Amino acid sequence: MSDEVPVIAIDGPSGVGKGTLCQWLAARLGWHLLDSGALYRLTALAAQRRGLPLEDEARVAAVAVALDAVFVADVAGTSRVLLDDVEVGDVLRGEATGNAASRVAALPAVRAALLQRQRNFRRPPGLIADGRDMGTVVFPQAGLKLFLNASAEERARRRYKQFIEKVIDANLAGLIEEIAERDARDAQRAVAPLQPAADAEMLDTTRLSVMEVCEWALALAVRRLAVRVIP
Ligand code: DC
């Protein structure tokens, strides 16, 4: 799709609140949403369901190329996800799938296989792109790039709260450890490591509420891209 379709690239580590911000912004602007993490999660899930070892780069990349995934937006702004025509429920969002996704995301052939699929989400009137390398690799020409961060402890605490609200058993110390491990893998991999683009606007959200983060992002979008906000 053409360069005139505006993109807001939003990157940052696991559990920093990008998902909530991106859904909110997409709803306020009436734009499309790319949840790139979901594509890595779906690739990992599909590979596991086919019994493939997650480090088998060629075969996992082949799964990524052929990924049969459909996102169905619902009224709440969230989306139902179908993998091989079957809805994947909470398993997609779970920590186990997140860790598996982080492993397949370290494989260059898998990243290459998902690149064009991600760019295809760029459709009028605009795209909010949520991920780790949106501003650096997938949409380097994005008109606005945001990079969120928060301490590992705070991100684990937010995850913990989400799990408890959903009545999913969770262990805070274990979550902190898992988040730190995932951060290290995402930041240290050879291809497209988690890092802010040189021209990204940075925000530490450790002590901020969800709405404070949303208002900060919206103000930047209005100022930089002259976007129209849905009342
Ligand atoms: O955002 P998430 O938790 O759904 O992402 C799951 C994993 O996928 C994350 O640990 C790293 C990887 N990922 C990535 O490497 N690049 C992206 N653009 C998005 C996610």
What is the CA-based Rg, rounded?
17 Å
Spatial arrangement of strands, main beta sheet: 2-6-1-7-8
Question: How far apart lie the N and C ends?
Answer: 28 Å
Percentage of residues assigned to helices: 40-55%
- By secondary-structure content and strand pairing, the structural class works out as alpha/beta
What's the total number of strands? 8
What's the total helix number? 9
Shape: globular
Give the biggest sheet.
5 strands, parallel
Secondary-structure element string: EHEHHEEEHHEHEHHEH
Describe this structure in words.
The chain is of the alpha/beta class and 231 residues long. Helices cover 47% and strands 16% of the residues. It has a 5-stranded parallel sheet. A 3-stranded antiparallel sheet has the order 3-4-5, with helices on one face. Helix 2 (36-49) packs across helix 3 (57-65) and helix 3 (57-65) packs parallel to helix 5. The longest helix is centred in the last third of the chain and has 17 residues, at 172-188. The protein binds 2'-deoxycytidine-5'-monophosphate (DC). 2'-deoxycytidine-5'-monophosphate is lined by residues 14, 36-37, 40-41, 98, 101-102, 105, 131-133, 182, 186.
